[in-house]
Amino acid sequence: MKKKQLYIGVLSVACCALVAIGITLHLLYPKKQIQNLVKTPPVLRLKPQPADTLKKKPVKKMDFNISGTLRDKEGKGVAGVIVSDGFNCVKTDAQGRYKMKRDSLAKFIYYSVPADCEVPTHSKTDRTAFFYQKVSKGKKIYNFTLTRLPGGKEIHYKMIVIGDPQVTNAYSPYYTSPDDNPIKKSDVERFTTQTMADIRQTISSLPAGTPVYGLSMGDDVQYYGGYNAKLERQIRQALGSSEMRLFSVIGNHDQDGKALYRRKWEENFGPTDFSFNRGDVHYVCINNCFFHRGMSYYSPGELRERQVRWLKQDLALTPKDMKVVLCYHIPFTFGNAPFSKAKPLTNAHEEGHYSSSRLSLLLSLLKQFKGGYELFCGHTHFACNHEINYEGEDVMEHCHAAACGNIWQSNINICGTPNGYYVYSFVGTSISNCYYKGTFWDKSKQMTLFRAQTDFNGEKYSRDWQLANNRNILIANVFNATSHWRVVAVEDGKEYLMGRLCGKGQDAFAAGYHHKYSESVSYRFVSKGNGYLIMNHLYYYTPRNPNARIIIKASDPYGNTYTASSDEAITEPFANFAHYYEKEYKEYKNKKDKMLRDSISGRQKDSLAARKKDSAAVQK
């Protein structure tokens, strides 16, 4: 009985305690918070937070208004300069001052280098462009100091355009002699000792005082072979190692859909959408690599809405008497992995290719400029001055061959064009000259010749292009040709127009070589099997006399005529320029010969010393 009374007493006290707790909770907490508290795990219920900490803290409004002044070295304001944060564009006033509302996503504040000012660079030995400041939290003033050109705006200058350096973290097989014994060399080393060494030689051959600038068309790196945090810095320093001041576009492999990769590019080169001026030309560089599903990207290139808004602002602030050169990585006029709104091309020989959904808008913006416009891109690893009739207008896009060729698997691109770069001459708003400069090639050599029936490791021009089964047909690969070139064969003193081959074919010589020697790139990539390759700079001629010596003359729109002889036709696969450089072979051979001589000399000295020692011993 006593135990029963004790239990009832304890239970009564517990009930009273629960009622007291309930009343206390009701007084301290709203109904919803009590429900949430009851639902939380027991461990958390043991440490209830004070009621005032559950209230949301007010969000502090950020003030993104910024300003600054652009002055020259004498302290005078630089007027009429476009300043941007990558989202908005404004112009400096008469005193060089500007104000703008910075976008919350902006990473840089930068300006469009004026035509009468020097292109600022990272250093005297790294002459890549440095025209920007990184956005700092809380910083509201971004000033810039510009250096005036001593002679004012340049009337003429050279622009060296480099397609796809694309150095990787791998050591690709590399040949230095006419054999099948490769050595290993890093891509950065090849780009530095080959491409940039040749560019320095080209610059040194120009008249003293000629202004020279550079432009990389993107894919400065590719993280094939593994991620390397130093790779972008290494290629930037290589690109900046000559006398030219250089800008770079961002490519798809500089990003590959990864924020880390893009950040590395931005750390080294700055903003991805920007502009600058040289002479009477306004250059606009824009990131047209639109990724979806990871590393996949649209081809032709596309732009986001915010980029279109930025581009419209930049061009609206640009004088309409200038020429505009729009620079980007992926072609806008062709591609076979299109965005849903892209338009199919109407050319029968380019079936499966599309033009960008933005092309019509871009052309409408560019046609406002009385100085005209040019479209510059890279990406493809083949040379192609692509011409289409778009909405009743003839449009040409300059698709630049790659400095790395087939990603450093050879010395040629997949169209047979040698690794190299382009040299443009600008006068006012006109391009007065342009030629392709093969690495370690003389600039007068603008074509290679073949016989249509020559077998290049199972590939023949006659079969690829359905030519007559005639072993005498001559093929000319004219690297920089367009429909405005005149290419003729001279036989017995008479000129005959050569036929032009255009379509989704391939270069038999390049496909055959890469099929045999390319280790890291699939055969599908280098052949017509990729469905992407467009060839339009092959010409053919059937000789009247099979024994005649034929001279090929290729005349460009700038008044240059380049020649080659049928005697130069390549018949031996592949102990030639695709495989190794004669210049490097000589250097390599001389080095080996010297090592051999030094070795022999050393042994002779050792032998002589030994004989002297023996003689001395005998005399003793």
From TrEMBL:
Membrane among keywords: yes
Protein name listed in UniProt: Calcineurin-like phosphoesterase family protein
UniProt domain Calcineurin-like phosphoesterase N-terminal: residue ranges: 73-146
Residue ranges of domain Calcineurin-like phosphoesterase in the record: 160-381
PROSITE patterns: PROKAR_LIPOPROTEIN (PS51257)
Parts forming coiled coils: none
Transmembrane segments: 7-29
Biased composition (Basic and acidic residues): 603-620
Domain Calcineurin-like phosphoesterase C-terminal: 397-562
The entry's keywords: Membrane, Transmembrane, Transmembrane helix
MF annotations from Gene Ontology: hydrolase activity
Matching InterPro entries: Calcineurin-like_PHP, Metallo-depent_PP-like, Metallophos_C, Metallophos_N, STPP_CPPED1
